[in-house]
Design brief:
This protein is mostly helical and about 45 residues long. It contains 2 helices and no strands. The chain is flat and about 45 Å long.
């Protein structure tokens, strides 16, 4: 039963990903929104 749920979840993610890629993906907006700011300490 768990494997069926995992497979269904992967199928949903693939469907979402394919729909994002099929259209023009707003990479500029995505990067500017999710880009870490200078105040973020990545390695400490």
């Amino acid at each position: 039963m768990v494997m069926l749920a995992v497979r269904l979840q992967l199928m949903c993610y693939k469907y979402l990903w394919d729909n994002l890629i099929a259209e023009r993906f707003p990479a500029e907006n995505f990067c500017s929104y999710f880009w870490p700011g200078p105040q973020l300490l990545v390695f400490g």
